[in-house]
Write a structure and sequence with these properties.
The complex is a heterotrimer of chains A (207), B (139) and C (104).
Chain A: E1 6-8, E2 13-20, E3 24-26, E4 29-36, E5 40-42, E6 47-59, E7 62-64, E8 67-75, E9 80-82, E10 85-86, E11 89-92, E12 97-103, H1 106-117, H2 129-133, H3 137-143, H4 155-158, H5 162-174, H6 177-181, H7 198-206
Parallel strand pairs in A: 1-3, 2-4, 3-5, 4-6, 5-6, 6-7, 6-8, 7-9, 8-10, 8-11, 9-12, 10-12
Helix pairs in contact in A: 3-5
Chain B: E1 4-8, E2 14-18, E3 23-25, E4 28-30, E5 33-36, E6 39-41, E7 44-46, E8 49-52, E9 57-65, E10 67-70, E11 73-80, E12 83-86, E13 91-93, E14 96-97, E15 100-103, E16 108-114
Chain C: E1 4-6, E2 10-18, E3 22-24, E4 27-34, E5 38-40, E6 45-57, E7 60-62, E8 65-73, E9 78-80, E10 83-84, E11 87-90, E12 95-97, E13 100-101
Parallel strand pairs in C: 1-3, 2-4, 3-5, 4-6, 5-6, 6-7, 6-8, 7-9, 8-10, 8-11, 9-12, 10-13
């Protein structure tokens, strides 16, 4: 770690807010809030009961709270996280345990910025017209793929945040309109490919 | 249009493969492993390993398998008894449940992860009750 | 290197406790308590009551200090508060306002 970096040592307990523009390494215990412009590392023995925001987050210890990375989040082996995980890039290594909502992509970054502006607002329920209107790399990339992802007229999709919604609408427009325009119309005739699937397919037709 | 075949291995284990040109609408269930290289719209419930190859996609409500490896696209909730792995090129939307879930850097994902574990007592120990609105994993 | 470092550019608002030593180069507001040495570096701002085995101040400190062993207020430091320790040194060039209690 850099000589001028910040380390919360192994026997150190911080209760309160930790803020700043530089890197932070937690080997001890922090309860409250962490929000820094630099990178945050929660080491193997680190215990964090706080929402954590930073540029890049690396977690090998335990966190109870939401993680927001402006650039990336890496949950490494041994990490235990209960809370939401949002960053443009999220990597979860084998051996890391997570319970919570995870979101990657520029949509996650967008909601991350929104969170920074208004920390009280939950990113998921912050519907903003502006981000949805602005085409995002995620939306473009997804819509370039075959139309199958566009069939994502599942209820879950509508509960996604701005980025996801943008991706979806872009998708629907780009897809073979007739199939998806009506939302959840019965699927066209099925080509049975696996014998086991036959019975189910027949049922679907009857509906 | 569909080009899928079920092959039988010498050891009796069966592996189904949905080729890259195949497109299936409907539920798929079975005992063995399933490799999807094409497009599936519908639920998948198999006893073995499910692999969604790069360029393939599965869109359904529910996907059940022993282990799930995704390099392509998946839309739907996954319940695995074993591991769930998202490779770097994966695009997944849905909730994932498995004995272990790993996501490679570069994978795109939005959804809930639901691993069973206890936090250290300093952080309140077990907090299973706080998994917002989702039932605990079946064991 | 100290086990805990609050680097320049970091602000902690709240309570810090540690069984080891701690170096503050950034900002701490609240309480600061260490079982070993506390160092407040040049450029640091501490607005907190401070407890430690010893305390060395080169930065700015507002708050009461209790040290088991010694307190050194170095040249360039600026301390407002009461200081309680068995040994206290105030260097030439240190600014200090408060009571000193060297319990005999």
């Amino acid at each position: 770690m850099a000589a001028n970096g910040t380390i919360i040592g192994r026997t150190t307990r911080v209760r309160g807010r930790v803020t700043g523009e530089v890197d932070l390494e937690v080997q001890g215990f922090v309860e409250g809030e962490i929000s820094v412009g630099g990178d945050v590392t929660v080491d193997t023995h680190g215990l964090v009961g706080a929402n954590v925001r930073g540029r890049r987050l690396v977690v090998r210890g335990a966190v109870k709270g939401d993680l927001v990375g402006e650039e990336a989040i890496a949950l490494e082996e041994g990490a235990r996280v209960v809370g939401d995980v949002r960053a443009p890039r999220v990597a979860i290594a084998p051996g890391a345990l997570v319970r919570g909502y995870v979101e990657t992509g520029d949509g996650a970054a967008g909601s991350a910025r929104a969170t920074r502006a208004a920390p009280a607002a939950r990113p998921v329920v912050a519907p903003k017209a502006a981000p949805a209107a602005a085409p995002k790399p995620v939306a473009a990339a997804v819509s370039a793929k075959p139309a199958t992802m566009a069939a994502a007229a599942r209820p879950a999709a509508s509960s996604l945040n701005d980025g996801g919604a943008a991706a979806n609408s872009t998708n629907a427009n780009a897809s073979h309109g007739a199939n998806h325009a009506g939302g959840r119309r019965p699927p066209p005739p099925v080509v049975p490919a696996l014998k086991k699937a036959k019975g189910q397919i027949a049922k679907k037709k009857e509906r | 249009m569909a080009q899928a075949r079920t092959t039988t291995r010498g050891d009796g284990a069966r592996e189904a493969r949905i080729g890259s040109g195949a497109r299936i609408r409907g539920k798929i269930h079975g005992e063995g492993d399933l490799l999807v290289e094409g497009q599936v719209e519908g639920d998948v419930a198999i006893r073995g390993e499910l692999t969604i190859a790069e360029g393939a996609s599965v869109v359904g409500e529910a996907v059940e398998a022993q282990g799930v490896t995704i390099a392509g696209a998946l839309e739907g909730d996954v319940a695995a008894t074993g591991q769930v792995r998202l490779a770097a090129g994966a695009r997944v939307r849905g909730n994932l449940r498995g004995s272990a879930v790993s996501i490679e850097d570069g994978a795109r994902f939005s959804g809930r992860l639901d691993c069973e574990f206890d936090l250290p007592p300093e952080l309140g120990g077990s907090s299973r009750g706080e998994t917002r609105g989702r039932p605990a994993a079946r064991r | 290197m100290a086990s805990t470092v609050i680097g320049a550019g970091i602000t902690v608002e709240g309570e810090i406790t540690t069984d080891e030593d701690i170096v503050v180069a950034g900002t701490v507001r609240g309480k600061l308590s260490a079982k070993e040495a506390v160092t407040i570096e040049h450029g640091a701002t501490v607005e907190a009551d401070v407890v430690g085995s010893s305390l060395t101040v080169a930065g700015a400190l507002t708050g009461n200090v209790t040290a088991n062993e010694r307190v050194d207020l170095q040249s360039g430091s600026r301390v407002v508060g009461n200081v309680k320790a068995s040994r206290v040194t105030i260097a030439d060039g240190a600014l200090f306002k408060g009571n000193v209690d060297m319990d005999v």
